[in-house]
Write a structure and sequence with these properties.
heterodimer; A: 224 residues; mainly alpha; Arp2/3 complex 21 kDa subunit ARPC3; two-stranded antiparallel ribbon; 9 helices; 76% helix; globular; B: 101 residues; 2 domains; 72% helix; flat
Chain lengths: 224, 101
Amino acid sequence: MEGFLPLIWVIFWYAASAPFIIYGVWRLKKVMGEHPESKSMLAVAGAFAFVLSSLKIPSVTGSSSHPTGTGFGAILFGPAVTSIMSAIVLLYQALLLAHGGITTLGANIFSLGIVGPFVAYFVYKAVRSIAGFNIAVFAAATLGDMATYVTTSIQLALAFPASAGGVMKSFIGFSGIFAITQVPLAIIEGLVTMLLFKYLLELKPDVFRIFHIYIDDKAASTET
Amino acid sequence: MSELRKLTLIVVILIAVIGLLTAFVPGMIGITPQWSGADTAASSKIGEISDYKPWFSPLWMPPSCEIETFLFSLQAAIGAGIIGYIAGLYIGRNETKRDQP
C-alpha cells in the first residue's frame, strides 16, 4: 500500500504513533533492566509476531491476509513494548517485501502496534477477571487481531471518504475487505497464541510469575 | 492424555475445520476466490472511490515472485528458529535441574 495515503495522513499517523514508540522504548529498557531473565521471553514475543505476520493465509472472502502475532507480547509485556516489536516487523516487510510501506509505516504501527496490542491487553484483563486463563488469552489475541484490521479500515475510510455517504460508507466498504477477511485468521491467531502460552507455561512458569500472569491460577501451582 | 496434548489436538482440529470452510465457503456464497492479498482488494476499492494515484512507490521491490516467497519464508524461519531455540533451552535446563537435585 506504499504511497496510498495522502501526505497529510502520512504525517498524522506518524505523529500519532511517535509518542507510543518513545514510551515503548522506555518501557522496554525498564523491563530488561528490572528483569534480565525476561529477555528470552521478549525474544519469543518478537519472534512470534515475526512468524505470524509472515503467514499469508487464505480466507472465506476469497482474499488472503495475515495474522498479527501481537497478542502474546501485549499480554506478557504490555502494549507499549509490543509496539516496538511491530515496528521491527513492519520495517522488515516495508523494506524487503514492498509489503506495507515507508509512507504507511506510521498508520500501520498505529493499527498493528498500538490499537491491536492495547485491545488485546485490556480484553485479557477484563476477561481474565470473569473467566479462565485459556479463554482470556484466546479472546485477547482474537480481538486484538480484529481491532488491528478494523483500525486499518477506519484509516482508509478517513483518507478516502466516499463522495456519496462519506467516511461511514467507505468504512463499510473497507471493513468488508479487511475485517471480514480477518475473522477466521483472528480465530486461528487466538488458538495458536493460547497454545504458545500453555507450552511456555509448562516449560518456564517462573517468567510468567514475575509479570503477574497466571499467578492466581490454581493450575499454576499444580503444574510446577 | 495430558491437558496440553488434548488442547493441542483440539487446536489442530479447529484450524483444519477453518481451512476446510475457507476452501468451500467462497463458492457457496457466490464468490470466485482470487486468493490475492486483501491490500490488493483495498487498492482497487480506493480506485473505485476516487481517482487517487499513489504518490510514492516502494524503495525496493522483490524482483520476482520467487524472491518475495524466499523473503517471506526467511521471516517465518527467523521467528520459528528463535522460538524453537528458546523452548529447547528451557527443556534442557529443566532436564539438568531434574538430574541434579
